[in-house]
Amino acid sequence: MPRHIVCLTFDFDTQSGFIARGMTTPTPLSRGEFGLVGARRILALLGSLGLRATWFIPGFTIESHPHACEAVVREGHEVAHHSWAHVPPAEQTRAEEEADLVRANEAIARLTGRTARGYRSPSWDLSENTVDLLLAHGLVYDSSLMGADYWPYRARRGDRAELGKPFGFGTETPLIEMPISWSLDDFPHFEFVRTPTVVLPGLQSARTVMESWLDEFRYMQKTVDWGVLTYTMHPYVIGRGYRMLAFEQLVANLQAAGAVFMTMEEAAAEARERMFAA
Ligand SMILES: [Zn+2]
User: Which of 7, 163, 192, 195 has its CA 20 to 30 A from that of 233?
Assistant: First the structure.
């Protein structure tokens, strides 16, 4: 029996990503604050459909917006790890990264009663220490790498990349990688960003983007008997009205096409069984 899994994932950053980039004037902060509106809309939609999703919530959001995060838990969604302060591990020392990881896990434990099973790095940029730290702190899966699309795989430690030399594969670890892609992330498609050095235009047609996202599911169905497709969204991005309508249509189309929706923790557990049974 073919089985095509979809993980709807929401990175509930609110203001954290703007603060981590030094954008602390009122307007960027309010842009993050809009995530509270978006989260209510997403929770209402998922609740009406009986779907459970995975919310990667920075410790910052848990401690700044406790009621919004309690609503996520109350609705039965998975809460996963997305750092405390939304600083990419690639920019941190090992000690800084571990301290932030522990602090965020403590916030999640206070919110949900248990530490996180899954991790997604801010801005999808791991350090060479991340895989080891995640394993040391009891994480079961990561969702920050792009080495596959429909097949989870085992994250490696110790890959070697040096200019002028062939690539050196490190060793596989027990950490399950649930791969992602910028093409399946709402942020680059939709967000207009202007800094002194860069302009990201974003602001694409929501219906067009959602049609591409549905095609990704169709291609998975066409090419593999079993697979997991992960969509990444941010409440302050997807939560705008016309995007919500397009997202609602995507979910309806996925349901009609036979998608099996589950949390990432559940999908990782299923992937792990398949990997280690084979
Ligand atoms: Zn984020």
Answer: 195
- Residue 150 is given by DSSP the state S
- The answer to whether 155 and 173 are in contact (CB under 8 A) is yes
Ordered DSSP codes for 200-268:
E-----HHHHHHHHHHHHHHHHHH-SEEEEEEEE-HHHHTSHHHHHHHHHHHHHHHHTT-EE--HHHHH
3-state secondary structure of 98: helix
User: What tens digit of pLDDT does each residue of 86-127 get?
Assistant: 999 999 999 999 999 999 999 999 999 999 999 999 999 999
Helices in the chain by DSSP H: which ranges?
16-20, 26-49, 59-64, 66-74, 94-112, 130-136, 186-190, 206-223, 235-238, 241-256, 264-277
- Tens-digit pLDDT profile for residues 9-24: 999 999 999 999 999 9
Q: Tell me, what DSSP letter sits at residue 56?
A: E
Q: Is 160 helix (H, G, I), strand (E, B) or coil?
A: strand
Q: 118 CA distance to ligand 1 centroid (A)?
A: 14
Q: How many angstroms does the Cα of residue 163 sit away from the middle of ligand 1?
A: 30
Q: How far apart are CA 192 and CA 203, in angstroms?
A: 6
